[in-house]
Amino acid sequence: MLLLALLLPSVAQAGTAIEGARIWPAPDHTRVVFDTGAGVNHSIFALENPARLVIDIKDASLKADFANLDLGDSPIRRIRSAPRNGRDLRVVLDLEENIKPRSFQLEPNQQYGHRLVVDLIQEGRKTQPEPSRPLLRDDAGEKRDVIVVIDAGHGGEDPGAIGPAGTLEKDVVLSMARTLKSLIDSKPGYKAQLTRTGDYYIDLRSRTLLARKQNADLFVSVHADAFRSSQPSGASVFALSQRGATSETARWLARSENRSDLIGGVGGVSLGDKNDVLAGVLLDLSMTASINASVGVGDYVLRQLGGVTKLHKRGVEQASFAVLKSPDIPSILVEAGFISNHQEERNLRSSAYQRKIATAVFKGIDAYFQNMPPPGTLLAHQKRQGNASNTSQYRVQRGDTLSGVARKLQTSVQELMRYNDLNDDRVLVGQTLQIPTS
Ligand SMILES: [Zn+2]
């Protein structure tokens, strides 16, 4: 009996075949994905000196060839594997540095089946440079840049929409985002940051979080989605809505975009903030203002897009996109076209067309900020200089309030705040205010 019990495991066929593996290096972590064919039982543990990560998968055998994997840009030096206990599989990653591991499983999507995801988190690595907006400023000091965070949708395990000829949305939008960044960076007074700089996935919440960390003045998410039929075509611009979608397409696209985290994988499953309900209420309150600004900047961008391509809808559409939920940063989502439409798929692949779209988006953004420069920016300074011939000055008297001054001089508090880079309506006796006279 004892002998039989010992022999049985080695005779039995292992349950799950690991048929493929992929590696997605990101700036602060590397994601290793195994195609498992079904859900699996697994455990992982890290070892130091030398640094290794051990992945044990129950009832599994290896069909994939790890030798084909490109380990460049990852902390993995070598991947070894061996059967264990007769029917399990042990995979060992030899690492260049100690990492913090994290693992979870992903359901099938349109491109892949069941997957086991192992993240190697390289703590201490920065994803992005420090915010460039100075905390303090004075009139003699430097004028800060307008900061635009550009988000290329999808990435890594999440291909986004797939065109009839096999074009992946994640590739098209990354290339457009890079072009847009270089256009923005080349204009004095602006600075752009990308949420992702390569082919890896970032969860939706981290994308907007990054915009907040960068103190962004604008968040632009770039997409090129599919509809269930190949007919729809044209570019669209979306802003967040609190009251539901403005069209059927908007509803459909919001639904498929919001599924992204399920497809690409939200790593930190512990999003369990206890105060989510309260946070949600506060978020809604503070979001109204930025929704108006979002629709505003969206209008400018849509107008420019209309000059270079067909528009899907004439106005800025609104829907409940998770990626746009940044409470105080105006945020828009640009759909560069429908990748599900044959002609548009061809267009979206061409770098000339990508450049045309990126240029139009940039012109729209620039027109908006030229008109409404955020206080303290070079653009605000330039606008004031340009208007200098049209301004007069007013010295604040004892007992003056900004609204009183505005009434007296037939202008508005908002206008005065804008012309004078004021963050609130407090004024000091003796302070000189620039007054628009036109
Ligand atoms: Zn998309």
Topology overview:
Elements: H1 2-11, E1 16-18, E2 20-25, E3 29-35, E4 42-47, E5 52-57, E6 60-62, E7 76-84, E8 88-95, E9 100-106, E10 115-121, E11 146-152, H2 169-185, E12 190-194, H3 204-213, E13 218-223, E14 236-240, H4 248-258, H5 260-264, H6 276-308, E15 317-319, E16 331-335, H7 342-349, H8 351-371, H9 378-386, E17 391-395, H10 402-408, H11 413-419, E18 432-436
Helix pairs in contact: 2-8, 6-8
The site of zinc ion (ZN) has 8 residues, from loops.
Features:
single chain, 438 residues, alpha/beta, 6-stranded mixed β-sheet, 18 strands, 32% helix, 24% strand, elongated, binds zinc ion
Q: Please, could you describe this protein's structure?
A:
The chain has 438 residues and is α/β, with parallel strands linked by helices. The protein is 32% helix and 24% strand. It has eleven helices and 18 strands. Helix 2 crosses helix 8 and helix 6 crosses helix 8. The N and C termini lie far apart (100 Å). Zinc ion binds next to loops.
Explain briefly what this protein structure is:
The protein has 438 residues and is α/β, with parallel strands linked by helices.
